[in-house]
Amino acid sequence: MEQETRQQRYNHRPPKQNRGIILFIIIIVLFGVIKIAYSTYSSLNNTVQNSYKGANIKNRRNVSKLIKNKKPISILLLGTDTGSLDRSYKGRTDTIMLVTVNPKEKKTSLFSIPRDTMVAIPGYENDFPEKINSVYTYTNISDTVNTISKYMNVPIDFYALVNMGGLEKLVNEVGGVTIKSPLTFTFSNDTAHETGKHRYKFYKGSSTFKYAKDGVHFKTYHKMNGQAALAFSRMRYMDPEGDYGRTKRQRMVITAILKQSASPKMLFNKAFMKSISSNVRTNLTFKQMMSIAASYYQAKNNVSTKSATENTVMHNGVSYQVFSKSEKQKATNQLRSDLELSHAKTGPILAGDKSKVTVPYDIEEVLDQ
């Protein structure tokens, strides 16, 4: 495919979709497929393997040995919202999460890297500054995994690339979800604001909501379909808690999906599993998923979430998040500790070759902290 210009990528940037569904994928892919009856094994194997796509991960550890010995493993979870995963325009990975799973400690840690983190993309330093969510746009899945692995100086054993646009299908496949809204707000999926067609009205403390296809004539509903769940979890601008509030609502949607999908009936449902496999690309084989599900299953009961402590800076009218050296080192220390690895210096401060870029003085000051 011919390389798009930087401006073209911005010009047709897709609207943001629900990125929190990635937590649901963690549970299903890593822990949900367990104790499968022999009669369904072959069918499920073929379905899940449709999501398999290898990657050239540098310095990859011996994953077979790790799983056999029940050692901690790492998975890079990336969420993109560009419809089909195989379309020519890849979009950005607005969700970037390093997951460590420790079966002996029975814990799973989710470390989020903000999508607006300032980087110099390896091989594209002339375009500095860029945001870390565009590494995948410029390169490919292998280079994205390798860049983030080197950036944090943490080995990455597996990756999972998730199409967040698949949320609607997943909610519809489980028969819809019932959620009490934590606040009152109106939202249109068409405009990402209060006005427009396909408007929803949610009410604090109530699972009842209203919907108007034309944006004017509302009807009352008690269960969210996929489109309603997408609207409920997308809104950010009217939430006094901003992104934190949106994340909270995303978790509510995920929890509701899990309640509906935790039964063997759903795990063995071909349409449901096909929906997952068509919206995920991963280098995890079905055999590895089964082994992880059997040996690492209890790690799902103790899940902790962490995120990078970064500084917000403005450059040419664009907002970025900047990792200071000290905070980046803390993040590396935590991730390596979760993987039971020895202490090591964090990776390059801007991911790419810093000598090839000119860093503004005020940003340099933040980097050096």
From TrEMBL:
Residues in the signal sequence: none
Keyword Transmembrane helix among record annotations: yes
Keywords: Membrane, Transmembrane, Transmembrane helix
Domain of life per record: Bacteria
TM annotation in the entry: 21-41
InterPro entries in UniProt: LytR/CpsA/Psr_CW_biosynth, LytR_CpsA_psr
Pfam families linked to this entry: LytR_cpsA_psr
Keyword 4Fe-4S included in the entry's annotation: no
UniProt domain Cell envelope-related transcriptional attenuator: residue ranges: 92-262
Family indicated by similarity: Belongs to the LytR/CpsA/Psr (LCP) family.
NCBIfam families: lytR_cpsA_psr
Protein name, as recorded: LytR family transcriptional regulator
